[in-house]
Amino acid sequence: MMHDPVTKTGECPKLKKRWKGPFMVVERSSTDGLSYKLRHCDTGKELRSHIHANRLKKFNDDRDAFFNKHNIVPKSILDSPSSPINDDNTDADWCPIKEILNRKIQNRKEMFLVRWDDQHGSKSWVSAEDVTDYAIQQYYKGKEEKKKKRKRRRQ
């Protein structure tokens, strides 16, 4: 989201929506490292000028939906080799996530209790860095649905 401090004549400054967006960061300025080139998520158009970091705030949304809507391939996919990167893990160690069961903060790091999609259905606590954004979004969506169901039962 981008902050827009300008109020045009004839607009009420109290009721003006100050945050525009959402935008996706396309490029980071090499000169100061605090200016960003943005692309609007709905229209897919790039802004002409760079925007300073103090006018931006984080907006969490599904990035895959943006890429699919505008037929854009992220640079990270283009730059990476066609085969997956193996850091010290072999493919035998990798296991897909079945679902996220719980969340906690431990030593200032976000951790998720993950049920793995393996033969045993094992569970383990994993840092948020090792969990895909899609799985985290599904966890929060499920949590919201449970809240709605509870509210309906109370009424």
Tell me the layout of helices and strands.
Blueprint lengths: L1 E2 L15 E2 L2 E6 L6 E6 L10 E2 L10 H8 L4 H5 L17 E10 L2 E8 L6 E5 L5 H22 L1
Short overview:
The protein is an alpha+beta fold. It is 23% helix and 26% strand. It is built from 3 helices and 8 strands.
Detailed description of the structure:
There is one protein chain. Helices cover 23% and strands 26% of the residues. The chain has 155 residues and is an alpha+beta fold. Strand 6 and strand 7 form a beta hairpin. The model is unreliable at 77-91 (pLDDT under 50).
Task: Name a few traits of the molecule.
alpha+beta, single chain, 3-stranded antiparallel β-sheet, 155 residues
Separation of termini?
36 Å
Classify the beta-strand content into a percent band.
25-35%
Largest β sheet strand count, sense and barrel closure: 3 strands, antiparallel
Order of helices and strands: EEEEEHHEEEH
Helix count from the secondary structure assignment:
3
Radius of gyration: 21 Å
Enumerate the spans where pLDDT stays under 50 for 5 or more consecutive residues.
77-91
**Helix proportion of residues, in percent?**
10-25%
On the 0 to 100 scale, the average pLDDT is 77
The geometry reads as extended
Number of strand elements: 8
Placed side by side, the strands forming the largest sheet appear as 3-4-5
The class by helix and strand makeup works out as: alpha+beta
